[in-house]
Structure formats: structure tokens, C-alpha cells
Amino acid sequence: MADTPVFWLGPLGRMVPLACPEPGLDVSLQRQAASNVSVNMRTTEELQGFRRKWEMAQAWLDESDASVLEAMFNGTLMAPHRIIDPLRTNRFRPSVAAARRTSIWNGGVDSWYVASGNGVVSTQTGQYPAISWTADDGRTVSYRPDSGLEWNAAAAGNTLYPNGSLKADGKARKSRVDPILPGETLTASVWLKTTGTGQGTFLLAKVAADLTPSVATTQTFSNTAWQRLSLTYTAPSDGSVIGVFPYFTASADTLNLHIGPGQLEEGTTPTQWQAGYGAPEVAITQLNSVSPRHPLVTMNLTIQEL
After folding, report:
1. How far is it, in rounded angstroms, from Cα 85 to Cα 189?
2. How many CA atoms lie within 13 A of 71 on its CB side?
3. In this predicted structure, what is the pLDDT of residue 147?
4. Are the C-beta atoms of 185 and 197 separated by less than 8 Å?
5. 303 forms bridges with which residues in the sheet?
6. By C-alpha distance, which of 15, 3, 19, 10 is closest to 239?
7. Do 273 and 128 meet the contact criterion of CB atoms below 8 Å apart?
8. Each residue of 41-97: pLDDT tens digit?
9. Could you tell me which residues come within 8 angstroms of residue 153 by beta carbon, excluding any fewer than 6 positions away?
10. What's this model's pTM, rounded to 2 decimal places?
11. Whether the Cβ atoms of residue 148 and residue 116 lie closer than 8 Å to each other
12. CA dist 14 to 132, 179, 180, 209, Å?
């Protein structure tokens, strides 16, 4: 079985586990915005986007561990790489986790792909399912996303791809695949409801090493109240499956599918929804090495979401 309480980094399908970082790990979410101040001192902002950055120290590495990091830095293992962050539960990219199209999130504009004739996806506001919990100090917290999506299927058999389109030859795009490790079990869950008539199908595709997708598991639904549906899949341990992605189909042109928060996580049971930051494409942008004692090396690296 895969073991993910560590960071995983590397090319899709060839990710490696990193040594446990030293204390003081920086896992910042960076924000880019243009600010303007009017004559009456009111500040307005034009929000341009978010990207994640990781700064970590890998201490007392032997030559093998040091070599693989150098290989990613110098292009022996060519970027972009993917990162799995054990500090984040939700492996869906932000636009899929929050069911929203937006330019401020990586790949958000190309998400929720509808091919020509496959109906219309529109942003909807309303009473979406609340996210609630009791904190360790006794506080009761509850909030709900501001918007979700509605898909008017337009014709029976049409397909909606949350991660974005496939290639013209039907294969998956590397940047649009959610990584899965050999032997790992992942559960995908989404809040869904329907209006109109007909059934929807929630599917999870598995992606082979040559990027050919095929159905891993499915669930049909026709609930008219919000319900969290989930699909679980375990990858083979031989590395023949390198990723997954969700998608939806409709049984009738009269079906409207309402989509709320989604989550992809390790394990067999959906846990409380968390904001998704995915397993994004990244590059090591800085790598500094010192040798505290021969032949061991300590490396300080900066990993930047692309």
C-alpha cells in the first residue's frame, strides 16, 4: 500500500517520497493582486491569482536522496513535476473542490469542460451544503461556499469533465490528471442534486501510464435534495495506473445537474470537506546544499506551483 504521510514529488507516474522536512516548513499560499487607492483613501484590488509555494529543509540526506532532488532541479527529471502535500486532505484542484470556474485558480478557466453540443455549465448561487465542525477549544464553526455549478445536459449521453478536456485522441492530459500512487486507495466525493427528469452518473476514471483513461467505478443518482455521493478506487501496486479524474454523464436532455463541493482524499470514507489545492504542477526553483558531515548533505529547497 502507498504511504502518504510524507511529501511526494516528481513526474506524474514516477513520484518519489521525500524525507521528513525539518521544523519550520513554509507552505504559503501566495496571492497576486493589483491595488489602487482613490483620492478618498478607499483601496480597491484586482485579484489576479493564487499559487502555492513550499520551502523546506531536507537534512542529513545520503547521496541517493540528494541525487534525485538535484535531478529534478537540473532537468534530468524534467519539470513540471507534481507534488502531494500530506498537510492537505483534498487532492482535487481548487476549481473542482469548490465547483467554480475562475481565472484566479490554476487551470480554473479550463475546468468543467463541456464539448460542443454537450449542454451548458453556469454558475449558480443558493443554499449550498454547510461545512460545520466543533473546534478543539469548543467553538462551533459553520460556513458554506458562495456558489456552485449547474449543468444543463442538453442531450442524453453527454459528458461533463470537471478537470478539463481530453486530447483529440481520447487520452488524458497530464496536467488534468489527479495523481494516485501505486497501491493507494482514494475516495472521490461530491455534493450533488438533480432537477428536471432523468438520471446522472458520477464516474471516476483511472489513467494508465500511456495516459489512456478507462472507467474505474460509477454511481447513478437522481436525488432532488443535496446528497454527498462517493466513489472509492484502489490502484494496482505495479504502477500501471498513474492517476484518476472525475466526470459526469446524463441520461436525458431534460436533466439539470447541480454540483457543490468536491473532495478527493486518501482512504475509503469521505471526511469533512476541506478547500482543495490539488496535487499541482510544480518546479524546484531553488536548491541550496551544505554538508554538515561527510558524506551527508542538507538541502534547502523552494518548490513553486507553476
Report:
1. 19
2. 14
3. 81
4. no
5. 54, 284
6. 15
7. no
8. 898 888 888 999 999 999 999 999 999 999 999 999 999 999 999 999 999 999 999
9. 118, 119, 160, 198, 250, 252, 253, 255, 256, 257
10. 0.93
11. no
12. 37, 10, 11, 10
- 177 CA to centre of own chain: 9
Sheet holding 281-293, edge to edge: 16-17, 8-10, 81-84, 281-293, 296-305, 43-61, 29-37
Identify which of 229, 191, 186 has the alpha carbon closest to the alpha carbon of residue 206. 186
Mean pLDDT of 92-106: 92
Beta pairing class for 241-250 and 159-160: antiparallel
For 96, phi then psi, to 5°, come to: -85, -40
Length of the chain: 306
Closest CA to 46 of 97, 94, 103, 99: 103
Grid coordinates belonging to 30: 501566495
Q: Which of 144, 160, 146 is nearest to 111 (CA)?
A: 160
Q: How far apart are CA 104 and CA 47, in angstroms?
A: 7
Q: What is the DSSP string of 261-281?
A: EEEEEESSS--S------S-E
